[in-house]
Design a protein that fits this description.
The complex is a heterotrimer, with 2 copies of chain A and 1 copy of chain B. Chain A is an alpha+beta fold. Chain A is 42% helix and 13% strand. In chain B, helix 1 (4-12) crosses helix 5 and helix 7 (191-202) crosses helix 10 (222-241). Classes of the chains: A alpha+beta, B mainly alpha. The A-B interface holds A 33-37, 80-83, 85, 88-89, 91-95, 97-98, 101, 103-104, 106-107, 109-111, 113-114, 126-130, 168-171, 178-180, 184, 187, 189, 193 and B 1-2, 10-11, 14, 33-37, 79, 83, 113, 116-117, 119-121, 123-128, 130-132, 134-144, 147-150.
């Protein structure tokens, strides 16, 4: 008798757990569908059952949409539904809102992405040419590049990095998914002026480095030294 | 995603047309983004991998290009001249046999550095091309087109206590009571009034008279009793001080007797 | 032999048809997801295989999302993905703002409470100042004051009274629990110096009085006479 009842109880508990999981999945599905930009899963917590297993939910949801016309994708710290990549050709439409990036802006974007955190003078070192003020502004206006902090070196130059919108726009799960990153690292081409056999840094769009200070709230990146030199010129 | 065709388009299409006519290279220096860009373009014309490039040949091409520009009196930005000076130095290092003092970079080291910088710039251009050839959001990949907004409704919850309510009622009801009050004038005897009355009552007689008998006419009016007693008693003390009257009391709580002072003439 | 081959051919054709259908479904799914407004199915035609059975596709897609957090719904002439109705709460956030009731609103509320059924001009008579419509609106929005009916006098003014929410908020069981003249005096809220004819009415928040008419269903309390006089002013 007892054993039987136990089994029944376990059965009921399992059923309930299944129902709760299914409901959580629907809630997460609805929240992710309703959002345009990637959503931090923690933001869904208030709407899920207590102690919901977020990882398991995302896993199940990702699988559910694996072969659909819409996929659940990871973008940095968040998740979002996006149309399937293999339908790209079919769905392709010329973007009208954004002006295409100029050659130099795109080059700077790539340098920021692969070398971040990077200062303006380091960008200039790679390109061998002064950076016109507009180029970085365009990238920041597009929402792809941000000021991360200030390097703890003389002059305290502003450091730049990419944003989560950058990941989202170019369909990258993480900054380490940049195309060709490993080859570049292997070839020692991300190492500044270090000889190739030194430890090669990886791009990092997250936390500040040890040699970076956070920006103050009222620090908008005006760089006294560079402003002065520009005024002089 | 990136195929080399795309990439070349992207890199090359904004470059100025450069062509060789009659052995002379015509290049618009304004079309280059700095000396490194120019060097990279020249290096590509060697049609070998950057690893196998002849740095010496590259330096010579660069210097002769700058010379051409100078001959044609084209103004050249300082960046290009700095690079020209550096390449001249590099060239001399490469051509003159090394003295091994180790302090100065050798020609080979300088050449390797130049190669590194060219390779890195090229790598970044390739990376930029690969990036821009990825399917982009809003172009090939799409987010939800009609996201459902979270609607936040603000509900004002008014706060008022029961006491507030009752007070508000009482206060305004009272405020509206018609102001038809008749001022109740309280009679108060001033000391001067009391003195005048005492003088009159005592008259010219010099007999002892009890004070309350003098005042009996007033003491019967309840609203005047207190003030009549208090004021006339105080006035009488003053009058004693001034020597107009005399006061006498046989024992505590006995009637207070008074009379005109004899000498007061 | 021939028959066998026929079967194989049919099998291949069926397989292909299935694949085409599945692909069309994915494409439609992606298009509906990315559409900025409910999509007319005909707009999907250029993206689908020739002679795709739109009705069958929509049917299959509707079924697929039937129990999901997001449903495919018809909106006008088009179709769109929308949050499942039972999850609509996910998209509604409510914020309650606590504000103290203003002095004049409080005074009006008190008069309505004691003198109900009361017209606006009667309120003004007791207060001795003009009553802005806004104050009464605030009280009605708070759910404490309601329009009861119209007084059967010239101009047919609206009569106001309190609601059961009013009783709830102030912790009264009945409107008759409001303290009368002697209790107000006893509590020190009214002074002792009141004219002999001073009276506190016994409030009534129940049925209509004999001189009150019920409000018509389409009567929202607009007051013809007072509107006119306000226009004149």
């Amino acid at each position: 008798m007892d054993e039987n009842e136990d089994h029944i109880q376990q059965g009921i508990a399992a059923m309930e757990a299944d129902e709760i999981f299914a409901r959580n999945m629907r809630v997460l599905e609805a929240l992710l569908f309703a959002a345009t930009s990637p959503m931090d899963l923690d933001d869904a917590r208030p709407f899920l059952s207590d102690n919901a297993d977020l990882a398991a939910l995302v896993d199940a949801l990702t699988k559910k949409y694996q072969n659909a016309g819409v996929n659940l994708v990871r973008r940095g710290d968040g998740y979002a539904f996006r149309t399937a990549e293999d339908l790209a050709f079919l769905l392709r439409r010329e973007e009208t809102e954004r002006k295409p990036l100029g050659r130099s802006a795109l080059e700077i974007l790539a340098i920021v992405a692969y070398h971040q955190p990077v200062t303006r003078s380091e960008i200039e070192e790679v390109r061998g040419v002064a950076t016109s003020k507009g180029s970085l502004d365009v990238l920041m206006e597009a929402g792809w590049v941000r000021m991360r902090g200030r390097r703890r070196t003389p002059g305290r130059p502003v450091t730049y990095g990419t944003t989560s919108e950058f990941l989202d726009h170019f369909g990258l799960e993480n900054i380490t998914d940049l195309p060709g990153l490993n080859e570049l690292k292997g070839a020692g081409l991300l190492s500044g002026n270090l000889p190739p056999d030194f430890a090669v840094p990886s791009p990092n769009d997250g936390d500040l480095f040890d040699n970076e200070d956070p920006l103050d709230a009222d620090d908008h990146g005006e760089d006294l030294l560079s402003e002065l030199s520009e005024d002089d010129a | 995603m990136a195929n080399s065709g795309h990439q070349d388009d992207f890199i090359e299409d904004k470059h100025p047309p450069s062509a060789e006519r009659g052995g002379v290279m015509y290049v618009d220096v304004d079309g280059y983004e700095g000396p490194l860009d120019l060097l990279l373009d020249l290096a590509r014309k060697q049609k070998v991998d950057l690893v196998n490039i002849s740095v010496l040949a590259l330096a010579e091409q660069y210097l002769s290009f700058i010379d051409t520009l100078r001959e044609r009196r084209i103004e050249i930005a300082a960046d290009y001249l700095v690079m020209a000076a550096w390449l001249t130095f590099l060239k001399s290092r490469l051509m003159v046999p090394q003295d091994d003092d180790g302090d100065e970079p050798s020609g080979e080291e300088m050449a390797a550095l130049l190669q590194f910088r060219l390779k890195r710039l090229e790598a970044m251009r390739d990376a930029a091309a690969k990036l821009i050839n990825r399917p982009q959001l809003g172009k090939e990949i799409f987010a939800s087109g009609s996201p459902e907004q979270v609607v936040t409704t603000k509900i004002s919850e008014w706060e008022a206590t029961y006491y507030d309510l009752l007070q508000a009622y009482s206060v305004q009801r009272e405020r509206q009571i018609p102001a038809e009050y008749a001022p109740t004038t309280r009679t108060v005897w001033s000391l001067q009034d009391a003195e005048d009355i005492l003088r009159r009552l005592i008259g010219e007689g010099a007999d002892w008279v009890p004070l309350h008998v003098c005042l009996s006419e007033y003491l019967e009016l309840p609203e005047e009793r207190a003030t009549a007693l208090a004021s006339s008693f105080t006035a009488s003390l003053e009058m004693v001080r001034q020597g107009h009257i005399e006061l006498r009391q046989n024992q505590a709580f006995a009637p207070l007797m008074m009379r005109r002072k004899k000498s007061d003439g």
